[in-house]
Amino acid sequence: MIGVELAPLDTWFFRDGTPFFAGETPMGSVDGVFPPHPGTVVGALRAALATERGWNGRGRWADEFCAVLGDGPDDLGRLAFDAPFLLRNGQPLFPSPRHLLGTGNPDEWDPATFLRPGPPVACDLGDAVRLPEPMDFTGDPHDLKPANGQWLTPAGLTAVLNGALPSPGDVVFAGGLWATEPRTGLELDRNTRTAVDGMLYNIRHVRPAGDVSLGARIDGLPDDWTAPFGQLLPLGGESRLAECREWDGQLHLDAPSAAIGSGHEVAVMALSPLDFEEDICLGERPIPELADARVVSAALDRPLRIGGWNSLERAPLPMRNALPPGSVLFCEVSDPAQLHEMAVAQGGLVRLGQRTEWGFGLAALGLWPRNTEVQ
């Protein structure tokens, strides 16, 4: 794989799934997302690769590019991507897994314990549902809070994958990684140079810190093609610019691949949005790409609504649900040997669900938490 880094030259704006129509309440503000969804980064990189080969940036690219770059939003040709990763000084940061609980306010949050599947109970979800429960914690359980804007260094996520708490020094707060800036936009009539009625809007940009950027990995690029290193490319809304740089593409995770085959339990921790079918999430059938692993419990935030833009048709893509990065699926397997072989072969990283070639479904395999000792 080829690693690329996208460094901001200004603020960025990446749309979320909020409807945004002309003529609505002028002061209604549209929030963005950061990091962006995979399709945003993949689309920008495909366009940059085509530009590197001589495409002028307008209309369809040459037919000879389609075998490599694909044609349209449903065809990636021979390419596959892992994207995006949040980078600080070129090193990846990962969203804190949802089963990790801590104490304190958002700016002083310290890891304290984990959620782990409890015994089967009867509830509105079914007759034998294993809801996640906090593990041993000597304080007031009402003080426990899931991560909200906290990120982990590779060492911190490695500790979690191995079933232990990360050290407080491996927790990074989003407030130090980027700031949000409200912006007001106004469309001008090109002929009169006056404001167009009803075209006032408010959005929120993000301004990454000076050492923060985005990373991606590209697989399948032919030997005679070159990555767009040094190129300035538009990324996200309003065509804000990013500089494409070389990145080593290393995630620096030490997943417990050897230990995964010692039992019948595995924790799947999402590093990018997971596009799963509902019956897999509910444990009604196994995860196809993960031997016979079946979901028995989960620690999740609300699903993401992810759409996109079809630049050929100049129309939005349909909205789809996806599990957000940081989601944790607790799975049981009946054949640990097969899972162990898979984990060792892939270094503890797997690609699950739909649209994996677009960067969806990258996940790390870990152990169910067994202790609350800080590593």
Architecture overview:
Helices cover 12% and strands 35% of the residues. It is built from 6 helices and 26 strands. The protein is mainly beta and 375 residues long.
In short:
It contains six helices and 26 strands.
Strand order of the largest sheet: 12-11-4-3-15-1-17-16
Low-confidence stretches: none
According to DSSP, the number of beta strands is 26
Number of helices: 6
**Global mean pLDDT:** 90
Q: Into which percent range does the helicity of residues fall? A: 10-25%
Radius of gyration: 22 Å
Largest sheet: 8 strands, antiparallel
Shape: globular
Structural class determined from secondary elements: mainly beta
Name the quaternary structure. Answer: single chain
End-to-end gap? 31 Å
What is the beta-strand fraction?
Answer: 25-35%
Supply the key terms.
mainly beta
Secondary structure elements and pairings:
Elements: E1 2-8, E2 29-30, H1 38-52, H2 66-69, E3 80-88, E4 91-95, E5 100-103, E6 110-117, E7 121-123, E8 126-129, E9 132-134, E10 145-146, E11 150-152, H3 154-161, E12 171-173, E13 178-188, E14 195-208, E15 212-219, E16 232-234, E17 241-247, H4 257-260, E18 265-270, H5 278-281, E19 294-299, E20 304-306, E21 309-310, E22 315-316, E23 320-322, E24 328-332, H6 336-345, E25 349-351, E26 362-366
